[in-house]
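Please produce the structure of this protein holding flavin-adenine dinucleotide.
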Amino acid sequence: MSESFDLIVIGAGPGGYVCAIRAAQLGMKVACVEKRATLGGTCLNIGCIPSKALLQSSENYEELVHKFADHGITAEGVKFDLARMQARKGEVVGANVKGVEFLFKKNKVTWLKGHGKIVSAGKVEVEGQVYETKNIVIASGSESVPLKGVEVDEKQIVTSTGALELEKVPGHLVVIGGGVIGLELGSVWRRLGAEVTVIEFLDRITPGIDGETGKMFERVLTKQGFKFKLKTKVTGAEKTEKGVTLTVEPAAGGTPEKIEADVVLLAIGRRPYVEGLGLDAAGVALDEKGRIKTGHSFETNVLGIYAIGDVITGPMLAHKAEEEGVAVAEILAGQHGHVNYFAIPGVVYTWPEVATVGFSEEEVKAAGVEYKAGKFPFTANGRARAMGDTDGFVKIIADKKTDKILGAAIIGPDAGTMIAELALAIEFGASAEDVARTSHAHPSLNEAVKEAALLVANGAALHI
Ligand SMILES: Cc1cc2nc3c(=O)[nH]c(=O)nc-3n(C[C@H](O)[C@H](O)[C@H](O)COP(=O)(O)OP(=O)(O)OC[C@H]3O[C@@H](n4cnc5c(N)ncnc54)[C@H](O)[C@@H]3O)c2cc1C
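Below is the modeled complex.
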């Protein structure tokens, strides 16, 4: 008989590995099954971390070429070495995945290497061995959504995985899908010299983000050289000797048109990944979108089987998966783990960055809530001026009667870091006045948060 455990987690992405570590910290005997050669899941291997490594390298290059002159710094003969950039990305990923391996050892989590299949509640099969366990947490993640007529080869027609591995800057990169992943990776290759066209079915990019912020984002990216074809659908892709010929037409139907691309990035979203998990045999139910159905405590319909992360409902974000990993481990330990979905920030790591938390103005309006909004531009923020990064604003939305913060959106330099203050404010149930009365260091970008809060609380900011 193989070893038995208190908990077997399937998948070692940010949901799974964090769950395994927290459960071990709480005294459980834990194993985590991972079929990839390294730990860390999509996020560390082919998602968040490698994309941010390339975003940083390409942003450094763009700053040197286009932004330093304004500071009186001239750099002549600036070149980049893509092979080195890619190698550095690999080193960053390597350090991160090794870090998770170290944490597993430190917390005595057993890594069961290979494909995990649920035999039944309490039994998981890995590479022919069946392990017994009191509980199972599924954290199997997600995969790219395919598009009919656009066959991915990860060379000319790529998903985000192939787009992170290109060995040459494409002359013309066509991105299908104006969401976060397409815009981040489109930014990497645009900064390195590609012409980038984004084809989006809807009439706006980054659907779901506060409308006013999304519009400004589109304007800024257009200024940077992005071309957008909105309300357009891709109906086919044909590989040619030179690249790919895409057929597109208006979303509502109409005359087709051809677009030539060197590389096509298919980025129309991600879907839950449940292949080979044995869910049918175990009787685990899925919802209409193929996600594992879960209740308030992440329990599935089968006793002793839980699910978290991208494979269940909610935003497909690494930190959301992590929060769920911690919560389910605490629940299994008899504690009261929970996730405040209202306070989960979302960030687009372009430059400027875009970050949101809580409700958008459209959502508040649709819910019929009486609200007040305050918006403070970075053009009026001393630090942003000193940086030479004044595109964007901080926007805060609060309940009209109680002044409680309901949501926030930031477009601007380091928005992804700044949003933490507003996530914390929401987590603590803060009012706009609470934020407005908090001393913010001068000169700092976060003063724009204080000023937006002043606009909401007092109807007047100090510096505009
Ligand atoms: C290009 C890109 C950039 C991204 N950038 C960000 C970002 O900046 N910020 C952010 O918050 N999110 C980002 N994301 C999303 C983020 O990666 C996911 O939300 C996150 O990884 C989900 O975590 P997870 O633990 O649910 O699943 P995953 O990270 O997908 O991990 C699931 C793991 O389970 C393993 N697995 C699946 N089935 C089995 C099985 N049967 N047996 C054994 N192992 C199995 C898989 O091999 C995988 O390693 C990005 C995604 C992509 C693609």
